[in-house]
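Re: the request from the purification team.
They wanted to know what the chain is likely to look like in 3D before they choose a buffer screen. I agreed to run a prediction and write the result into the notebook, where they can find it.
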Amino acid sequence: MIKRVIAKELEKALKISPVVLIAGARQIGKSTLVSKLDREYIVMDDITQLDAAASDPQGYIKRVPKPITIDEIQKTPQLLTPIKLHVDDNRKNGEFLLTGSANVLNLKKSNESLAGRLIELTMYPFSAKEKNRGINTNVVDMMFEKPLSSLKVDKNNSDKITKFILEGGYPLSFMMKSIKDRFMWFNSYISTYIERDIRSIGELRDLDSFIRFFNILAPRTANILNKSDIANDTKLNSITVDNYISLLEKVYQVHLLKPYYENIGKTFIKSRKVYLTDSGMASHILNIRDEEDLKNSRYKGSIYETFVFAELLKHITYSKDVLEFFYYRTQDKKEIDFIIKKQDNILAIEVKSSYSVKKDDFKHIVDFQSRSEKNIIGIVLYSGEKVIGFSDKLFAVPLGVFL
């Protein structure tokens, strides 16, 4: 079994909170992670358990052995209130471990937040580091703590980047033996899991229009979200577009990245950027099957940026520090793909799929540095093999740093 970074976070959370929720998309390894723990394990895919829980939620929580893991809790959100009452009567850390493949606390069916009683951990598809068995390295922490000039990146990793992008982080995807097998798995995942979860958590009257919406949204990954354009292209009204985006967020298939703002004499774009949360899924929907397809695709830049977004999100989530994550774009079209903020220290990151970097690739970062009083390190991630310094605060860094 490939080790997961979240395992350490889970161990800590169970020691300090009576209820821990691990939330994330289906088929990313949640059940594998929690079923190995030394505690009672129940999965709500079991129809008998589901019926018993629905018939008498309070009695069910009273009767089950503890400590307990309840897998797929989104199927029985009515258990959250009895769990709250049990914790209030007999608070004991680590007693309830819940997992959900939908954002349980934001479901309409749930009126219970478990505030003050719960720690929520978000789990993602495998990071490139996890796939490469390098779980002890947090790339973002390393970039903040070490001089970038001292970074060592295995030159062989550069050759693996395209493969990792196309596979994505779902374990059954990157374990497939052929491109065709992976293609069939993604098709099955969309129809079996995404469609089923969407139907179970939201009001979805027209499945065909939702799938059409998802296919039209996918090419917009790594772009500013323009709901009006999407509504026009899908022939859907704005309320439906908002609903579909919200549903995809709840099942962890898309993420909306906030814009950065600072008083530096610039007017900033206020809309969010939309990202699919897995580059393998994005490649599949865009019909990018292999390295040649990716090389020739007009979506190549967006796919690379989606891969980097997903990797940064995972490392930021499991960072030892509290970090903020943004994109940067001004009305006069100064744009930086990613801003990672740690108090007054900032990583400003651009993504290039090319094998070379020019000084001009840093121009918007340099403009930002000249206007802000914060300590800004500029990074252009590229497909080359070496870390190259353009100044004390500007560096070209291989994408292989994530492997």
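For the purification team: The longest helix spans residues 179-201.
Please add any questions underneath this entry.
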